[in-house]
Amino acid sequence: MKRKLLLGIGLSVLVGISVLFSCSKDKAAKTTTTSPTAIPDDVLKSITNLGFSTDEVRRQGDGYLVEGDILLTKANLAEASTSPTLRIADVEQYRTTNLVKNLPRTVTVSVTNLPTVYLNAATAAVARYNALNLTLKFQMVSSGGTIDIIGFNEGPSGGYITLGSSGFPTSSGDPYNQIQMNTNEQAYGTNPDLGYVTSVIQHELGHCIGFRHTDYMNRAFSCGGRHVNEGSAGIGAINIPGTPTKADAGSWMLACSSGTDRTFNANDQIALNYLY
């Protein structure tokens, strides 16, 4: 996720989950990336075929960071996208080809070498999911979790700062195994707000279990700026019965964050219950 904050005179910072790509007027989220021309053409083609935007792709380790906070591994790039997506009205709930399988299931979550606020935030995010009584539950463990939350330190670039990043479930049905949270003080400040950090981890957990950004068809909805379609790859969309027919500004999976504590709204809960 990414966030863009107004710092000083006209300086914006983009954050992790992407602090509301402009969910909030003064904050937007988006991860910085190198120019797409620096990425091999075959990789860009694979990213497009999977239905992701090639706008601002960045190499990260053995994978590629797309859409601000989503890490695609080599295994992801080798897969073909065939599943439909989930849609909620004008702002859609989307899922990836792969979902977590073998339900009911409990997924463990750990926090490694991060300040206490990140541990407390992870615990709170897990509690929010478990309060929905889904067939997929989470459990905090001291170490070695199925999903491990680790830190990185990266300042603003190109007017944005990344708050956190994660990936999608494997083809075998396991959740993505890692969330990276930015410890740079320009991401959360010198005294991070517990609710705010909780909402970012909550968002990244959403990616780990197969959710894409709610404003997938137009990132400008939450991030501001120009209209950016993350790409549909022709895989279609399924409307969830009972959801509204107008834009929904409060989703926990919006591409960018407003810098506030944002949790599940009613439509998010419909989408989660539909899948899990």
From TrEMBL:
Which regions form coiled coils? none
Q: Which InterPro entries match?
A: MetalloPept_cat_dom_sf, Peptidase_M10/M27/M57
| Annotated keywords | Hydrolase, Protease
Q: Quick check: keyword Protease in the entry?
A: yes
Which GO terms of type biological process are on file?
proteolysis
Molecular function terms in GO for this entry? metallopeptidase activity
**The protein's name in its UniProt record:** Protease
Q: Which organism is it from?
A: Mucilaginibacter rubeus
